[in-house]
């Protein structure tokens, strides 16, 4: 029933059918009858309602699908989620996609009935002005949260609280100018943090110190001007650090004093030199990109403390390098 010019789903439309995947995407449905899924066999695992004209979550209709695992409501016209539109109890639902709608606010109880099962939530490409903290707090199984391309301006204190297995957070393409040091509390398993294309201008020492398991931080395309001392220090699992497309002109002592970083990109910044201690403590660094800066000077021992270094990209700079620098 994909792309079938449907405008609505009537009562008991699928009565008696044995179907694992229901795909109603690319129709013109504005609403779904409350009894639309009554009578369908209790084996439905996937419901795809993407690319329709729905204006709210069909909460009542969904109650008949208690075996559902994945729900796609992306690319509709769903607006603010009120108390009348929250998800019903769906004990097996682990993946829900609400991306590319018109959601600007979310009721605190939106995911309450899914708190013991939901693992992936996509809220990307909406109009959220702040993190819906009260609605995601305490989701014990949540592993991935996507909120890219919204209008979030700041990460306030306790924006992310009691999310014990959250490992991926995508906040790319928002309007955040700063990150509150207390924005995260009891989020011990964070591994992948996307902060790409925001307006972040300031980092602090030990900015991400609460993330013992962090493996990748992407700060590409912000307004960062300097990396302070020990900013990324003492992050024992950090492997990938992306700082390209900022305005970085200075890097503090021991800013990257972390033996686990393997790849670091500083492409398209405003660095004018690479000094002796810039890369101190980076024993496992293999790839570093300085392309597209304004580097005129590379100090003689700049790479002395990076014994694992394999690739250095210094293209599109202003320097004339001596071969002895790399010996």
UniProtKB/TrEMBL annotation:
Keywords for the protein's UniProt record, in alphabetical order: Leucine-rich repeat, Repeat
Domain of life the protein comes from: Eukaryota
Any one of the GO CC terms: plasma membrane
One family name in Pfam for this protein: LRR_8
SMART domains: LRR_TYP (SM00369)
Gene3D superfamilies linked: Ribonuclease Inhibitor
SUPFAM superfamilies associated with the record: L domain-like
PANTHER family, alphabetized: ANTIGEN BSP, PUTATIVE-RELATED, LEUCINE-RICH REPEAT-CONTAINING PROTEIN 15-LIKE
Protein name as annotated: Leucine Rich repeat-containing domain protein
Naturally occurring in which organism (per UniProt): Trichostrongylus colubriformis (Black scour worm)
Lineage of source species: Eukaryota, Metazoa, Ecdysozoa, Nematoda, Chromadorea
């Amino acid at each position: 029933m994909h792309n079938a010019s449907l405008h609505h789903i009537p009562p008991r439309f699928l009565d008696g059918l044995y179907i694992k995947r229901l795909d109603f995407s690319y129709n013109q449905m504005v609403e779904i009858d409350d009894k639309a899924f009554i009578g369908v066999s209790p084996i439905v695992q996937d419901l795809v309602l993407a690319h329709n004209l729905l204006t709210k979550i069909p909460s009542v209709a969904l109650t008949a699908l208690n075996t559902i695992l994945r729900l796609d409501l992306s690319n509709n016209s769903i607006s603010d989620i009120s108390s009348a539109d929250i998800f019903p109890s769906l004990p097996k639902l682990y993946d829900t996609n609400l991306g590319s709608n018109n959601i600007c606010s979310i009721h605190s109880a939106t995911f309450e009935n899914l708190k013991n099962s939901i693992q992936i939530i996509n809220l990307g490409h909406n109009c959220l002005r702040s993190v819906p903290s009260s609605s995601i707090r305490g989701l014990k199984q949540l592993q991935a949260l996507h909120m890219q391309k919204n209008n979030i301006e700041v990460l306030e204190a306790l924006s992310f609280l009691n999310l014990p297995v959250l490992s991926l957070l995508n906040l790319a393409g928002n309007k955040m100018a700063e990150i509150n040091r207390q924005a995260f509390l009891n989020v011990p398993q964070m591994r992948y943090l996307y902060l790409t294309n925001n307006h972040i201008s300031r980092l602090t020492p030990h900015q991400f110190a609460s993330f013992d398991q962090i493996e990748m931080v992407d700060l590409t395309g912000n307004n960062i001007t300097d990396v302070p001392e020990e900013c990324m220090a003492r992050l024992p699992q950090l492997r990938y650090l992306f700082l390209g497309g900022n305005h970085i002109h200075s890097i503090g002592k021991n800013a990257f004093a972390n033996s686990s970083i393997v790849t670091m990109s500083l492409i398209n910044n405003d660095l004018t030199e690479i000094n002796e201690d810039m890369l101190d403590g980076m024993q496992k660094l293999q790839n570093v990109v300085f392309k597209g800066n304004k580097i005129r000077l590379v100090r003689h021992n700049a790479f002395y403390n990076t014994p694992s270094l394999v690739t250095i990209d210094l293209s599109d700079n202003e320097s004339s390098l001596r071969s002895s620098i790399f010996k």
